[in-house]
Amino acid sequence: MASITFREVEGSSLKYWLLFGGLGLFVLFGALAWNTMHHYGHVVTGMDNQIVWGLPHVFAVFLIVAASGALNVASIASVFNKPMYKPLAPLSAILSLALMLGGLLVLVLDLGRSDRLIVAMTHFNFKSMFTWNVFLYSGFFGLVGIYLWTMLDRTVKSYSKAAGTAAFIWRLILTTGTGSLFGFLIARELYGTAMLAPMFIIMSFAYGLAIYLMVLAAAYAWTGRTLGDAVMMRLKGLLVVFVAAVLYFVVVHHMTNLYFAKFHGVEAFILRDGGIFTTLFWVGQIVIGCVAPLVILLSGLGKQRTWIMVACGLVIAGGMAQMYVTIIGAQAYPLDMFPGLIENSSFYDGVVNSYTPSMPELFLGLGGVAIALLVTTFAIKVLRLLPASLDDATVAKLEH
Amino acid sequence: MSELKPMSDQTPASPERRRFVGGAAAAAGLAIAPGVMLHQVAHGRPEEQAASSAVRWGMLVDATKCAAGCDDCVTACSTENGWTPVAESKHPKQAPQWIRKLELQDPLTQVETNLPMLCQHCAEPPCVDVCPTGASFKRADGIVLVNRHTCIGCRYCMMACPYKARSLVHEPLNDTQKPDVPRGIGCVESCTLCVQKIDRGDGNTACAEACTAAGHNALLFGDMNDPESEISKRLRELPTKQVRADLNLNLGVRYHGI
């Protein structure tokens, strides 16, 4: 097998520092947003006692799900022994760590008492899926960190497969845990199903890979390195499979619900009467997130790199729409305490709850995205994560 | 030295008197014992004594007696526990409501039902299951509470509660706080069954007291484990329901007339 030369990005150009500074600015905005929320309380957000998880959770859960998906490329290389993916693995690992960091920061900074994070680290209730996630997230950092080390340090290279396999199994359990945050909720009709765990896993594959592809293409384009079509087309094919699988799970989930009369109300809400949520579901999640990317990638357009990037962008936008519908749509639909009766109260019982995200929420979420990209940008400057070239000839040698 | 002789030498022996004193003491003891036990239940318990699982505090809501338009229970709760009434709040959607009046209407028959909705004090509380830090907990006597000091404000319990019984404190609190009802910004809170009153030995909640004072008698608070308690007797007489009984959470609040 031919060897691949990994090299740091020089990172001294004006463009690099502009990117770095721009991302840093958004991190700063995120910090200011957190400070505002922490100082004034959640009263400055659009969240209330009806919509208790808002836009920050949409960003946080999306980033956490995408983080575990971004590790996929590395897993294919080490767990499934595909040599072509080996040079792509280090970026995959660092991106997954960075996305996880961004997502977790948004999650914990949106706590009502984010200053009490230490309490969450020292008091555990093992019946809570949240507690399990605390361990799953920490373990993810540890295992992926070790995995990255085995990829970067030749002296421990022999442990790479073992570390990669451990990280792979862990990320599957982790996303099961993320999906189960919602799956283990009895109160709301759209949750409370084991379906959410595998659905979140397949969504993580799609979102993570879409982000990975965009970061990879940007890194090579902006540094003037060669990224051959072989890599792009292979990853594109993988994305098609993942996006199609997401669509399959979403269809099965809603079809199952439609068969049960007790879910007719909430399904009608999401699929037909839910206003913004219905629009986000059909236009955002289904058309932009699944159908359009599939059409692009499977048609002749999918041979052009620009269109592959467009498809990736659409998958990411559709993913955000999906999280919005899943997290906020489910809360907007009223709890059905007295089936068949019309409810009225001062606490907004029986009415569809509205939600308008505020600026602090938006910037806290964007701050998480920015920190993930900032960490990645910095990591490729200081670590040898990117192959000097991924031209078709180099990649072809790997497979023989 | 003769003055220092033992008493027995000075006092003539009187077996009858001794028997009488002993008997009286025993009788008094027997008479007082249940009283002392009752006192412990009715007049609270010492701080160092843990809540007992022999007791299960609960409430019976008779919706047939709950008057339309009356919100005396809500006002009493807000006064007792120091939360701002929603009508006075600048942010009604974000204002905490520990108890609320719910108007129900059957679209077919137009029949209206009024009832207060509050934390149902489940025996199997979903909020306690999901709480990552264990801040949500159920006391031995069945009261579901939030530990103000370990709640991190993640709101997972609010996602899990089928009764929308919980509120997050969204803004800094004003000076209406009560010394024995700890609250705080960023923490989740809900009905405590007036735990401060129970532990003090009042034997009733503010909402039930207010309902009785208004002459409606729709709320009855008591120990559901004691077969002789008023609530147990009424629960045996009246057909009652649990809200979302399908979830099998074994609620501490039972409704008649829904």
Automatic annotation (TrEMBL), chain A:
GO CC terms in record: plasma membrane
Transmembrane regions: 16-34, 54-76, 88-109, 129-150, 162-187, 199-223, 235-256, 276-298, 310-333, 362-380
Membrane-protein topology: Multi-pass membrane protein
Keywords: Cell membrane, Membrane, Transmembrane, Transmembrane helix
Pfam families reported for this sequence: NrfD
Top-level taxon of origin: Bacteria
Cellular localisation: Cell membrane
Family that this chain belongs to: Belongs to the NrfD family.
Official protein name in the record: Molybdopterin oxidoreductase
UniProtKB/TrEMBL annotation, chain B:
CDD domains listed in its UniProt record: PsrB
One Pfam family per UniProt: Fer4_11
Keywords recorded for this protein, A-Z: 4Fe-4S, Iron, Iron-sulfur, Membrane, Metal-binding, Transmembrane, Transmembrane helix
A GO molecular function held by the record: 4 iron, 4 sulfur cluster binding
Name of the protein: 4Fe-4S ferredoxin
Source superkingdom: Bacteria
InterPro entries noted in UniProt: 4Fe4S_Fe-S-bd, 4Fe4S_Fe_S_CS, DsrO-like, ET_IronSulfur_Cluster-Binding, TAT_signal, TAT_signal_bac_arc
Ranges of residues in domain 4Fe-4S ferredoxin-type: 57-88, 109-141, 142-171
Transmembrane segments: 20-38
Organism annotation: Thiobacillus denitrificans
PROSITE patterns attached to this UniProt entry: 4FE4S_FER_1, 4FE4S_FER_2, TAT
